[in-house]
Design brief:
This protein is an alpha/beta fold and 223 residues long. The protein has three domains: 1-54; 56-137, Methylated DNA-protein cysteine methyltransferase domain (Double Stranded RNA Binding Domain, 2-Layer Sandwich); 140-222, Winged helix-like DNA-binding domain superfamily/Winged helix DNA-binding domain (Arc Repressor Mutant, subunit A, Orthogonal Bundle), CATH 1.10.10.10. The protein is 47% helix and 12% strand. It is built from nine helices and six strands, in the order H-H-H-E-E-E-H-E-H-H-E-H-H-E-H. It has helices at 3-9, 14-31, 35-52, 89-99, 112-122, 140-148, 160-166, 173-181, 208-222, and strands at 58-65, 68-74, 79-83, 104-106, 158-159, 194-195. Strand 2 and strand 3 (79-83) form a beta hairpin. Helix 2 runs antiparallel to helix 3 (35-52) and helix 6 crosses helix 8 (173-181). It is globular. It starts with a helix and ends with a helix.
Amino acid sequence: MNDLERLLADGADPADAAGAASAANAAGAAADPSAGAAMRRLRAALASRAQEQNLLDVAYRTVDTPVGELLIAATPVGLIRVAYARQDHEAVLAALARDVSPRVLFAPAKLDDAARQFDDYFTRRRRGFDLAVDLQLAGGFRRTVLEHLPDVRYGRTVSYGELAAEVGHPRAARAVGTACATNPLPLVIPCHRVVLSDGSPGAYIGGPEIKRALLDLEHAAAA
């Protein structure tokens, strides 16, 4: 029995044990090729124990996609974060622990449906996401913009100014840009469909090349 297994056997708080698991993960996998599989099993056990004890406040996993690895995270309310690799997944997890709850655990099974929907989106079998969302990380005008964005349908784009007008603030194009740039749920809340007034893509939280790839995917599928 290793030290982490002893923590579980001794009834340790799953969140504390999860922290130990994360700290040991990289070193253990490097020292022993079988350690990676054992660590994954242990982390799954931690997630299960945390769920049983109502200690799993934020579950997360990663998803491989054509635009790179995505981090997705959910609370009991719904999906709370989608992050691109360039956003630094470790920093995103630290922010979740700070802003939502320190009880953040790797629990991929909790997010299997979301992962399947991302796969369906990128393989053109899905044009929208049927997922509950948790928007506690957005407030005020930002939240108003995010709640309106799903109305921008697949294959369609709007300018920042047009979207500002649609939410009742025609002079707030810059604030719309800020809301898009800080969107905690890109793809699910499709801020990539908001473009410059001349039709060019403009900036994007995942990078301009990813924004162009997403728009090309949707336009081709919708044609």
